[in-house]
Amino acid sequence: MRDYRDIIIKPVVTEKSMNLLADNKYTFIVDKRANKTEIKNAIENIFEVRVASVNTMNIKGKPKRMGRFEGKKPDRKKAVISLKPGHKIRLFEGM
């Protein structure tokens, strides 16, 4: 079993994700191999909250160029976590 901190990579801090905070939804970049159950367990254990639902989406990396060299940004997986009423993640407070 993987460590919970290996599943949750980082929070997403964008205008859209900050607007979702009003609906008690939090957005994170997660490990591409993680499923919804693993993500739910990781969030509940790291932040000590109760998760209502997990929505995930796979994001393809954009093509990038550096001079004559072509490449692409890495693919990633994003998870939108809905918490049960009365629960908040302190990491996002004050944003």
Structure report:
Strand 4 (63-66) and strand 5 (69-72) form a beta hairpin. Helices cover 23% and strands 37% of the residues. The relative contact order is 0.25. The chain has helices at 4-7, 15-20, 36-47, and strands at 8-11, 25-30, 51-59, 63-66, 69-72, 76-83. The protein has 95 residues and is α+β, with helices and mostly antiparallel strands. The protein contains 3 helices and 6 strands, in the order αβαβαββββ. The mean pLDDT is 94. The protein has a 4-stranded antiparallel β-sheet with strand order 1-2-6-3. The protein has one domain: Alpha-Beta Plaits (2-Layer Sandwich), CATH 3.30.70.330. The longest helix is centred in the middle third of the chain and has 12 residues, at 36-47.
In this structure, how is the largest beta sheet organized? 4 strands, antiparallel
Corresponding CATH architecture: 2-Layer Sandwich
Spatial order of the strands in the main sheet? 1-2-6-3
Strand content: 35-45%
- Give Rg in angstroms: 15 Å
| Coarse morphology | globular
- Report helical residue fraction: 10-25%
Number of helical segments with 4 or more residues: 3
Ends apart, CA distance between termini: 33 Å
Structural class: alpha+beta
Rounded average pLDDT: 94
**Integer count of domains:** 1
In the CATH hierarchy, what is the class? Alpha Beta
Q: Look at the structure and name the CATH superfamily.
A: RRM (RNA recognition motif) domain
**Low-confidence parts lasting 5 or more residues at pLDDT below 50?**
none
Please name the CATH topology: Alpha-Beta Plaits
Number of strands: 6
> N-to-C SSE series?
HEHEHEEEE
